[in-house]
Amino acid sequence: MDMKLNGKTALVTGGSKGIGLAIGTALAAEGAAVTLVARDKTALVQAQNTIAEATGSRPKILSADLGSDAGRAALHAQIDTPDILVNNAGAIKAGGLRDLSMEDWRTGWELKVFGYIHLCQLLYPPMAARGSGVILNIIGMGGRAVRPAYICGAAGNAALIGFTQALGAEAQRTGVRVLGINPSPTLTDRMTQFFKGKAKAEFGDESRWEELIAPGAFPFGRPNSPREVADLAVMMASPRVEYLNGTVVDMDGGGQWSGTS
């Protein structure tokens, strides 16, 4: 199926690895002109090569610190308004209320919560003036299936869910669509490295890491995959589902209902 994204421009933050890299690859495969944004220039070059090898299309790359107002403003000054903005940069530290300092809260929220909001503040108005655009916020199930041990992420993700829905309500009159995806735990490089470290500690062999993924802990017996999130992102960004707006999709395999999200 032609997703009608050929020639569209897409800006993907946190695009050097994991879900961001998968989304950048999937958009490039559909013919979109992709720009990847991340802090690490070396990782960006690797991601650029990965996408070029997979799709034949070489994305642009921009190194930027999205954890500050100044860094986000500097990025904005370097780019044209894209057709598609994918907010994906950010990781919020796990821990309970007593485990996290206020600096932990501010650092996590500055990059993810305020990072998403600020980029929308910078790019939504010109999209609205143009009369077209898609903003897709990659948020997380922590804002739905809240856990005390992820209280900072629960609060931050819940805020972004509400923000996405509220901006979507405004955007419908401008021709812009604002959407979100809440992935459940996803088998990114970060998760893989976690399990490798655990396997080395427990078995003395990091190659046995897959043995530590308990099938009963996940819907369908496995974690979510970056490619599945990317495929959903492409569908949501496509004009084929133009009537979809203000929606945040819980991509958790139904785990919130069975207690495995």
Q: Sketch the topology as an H/E string, one letter per element.
A: EHEHEHEHHEHEHHEH
In CATH, what is the homologous superfamily of the largest domain? NAD(P)-binding Rossmann-like Domain
CATH architecture assignment name of the largest domain: 3-Layer(aba) Sandwich
CATH C-level of the largest domain: Alpha Beta
Number of strands: 7
Q: What would the principal axes of the Cα set say about the shape? A: globular
Distance between the termini: 31 Å
Q: What is the overall number of helices?
A: 9
**Mind describing the biggest β-sheet?**
7 strands, parallel
Q: Pairing-aware structural class of the strands and helices? A: alpha/beta
Description:
- The protein is an alpha/beta fold.
- It folds into 2 domains: 9-186 and 227-251, Rossmann fold; 189-223, no CATH class.
- 45% of the residues lie in helices and 14% in strands.
- It has 9 helices and 7 strands.
- It has helices at 18-29, 41-55, 69-78, 102-111, 113-130, 151-171, 189-203, 226-237, 255-258; strands at 9-13, 33-38, 60-63, 84-87, 133-138, 176-183, 248-251.
- Strands 3-2-1-4-5-6-7 form a 7-stranded parallel beta sheet, sandwiched between helices.
- The model has no long low-confidence stretch (mean pLDDT 94).
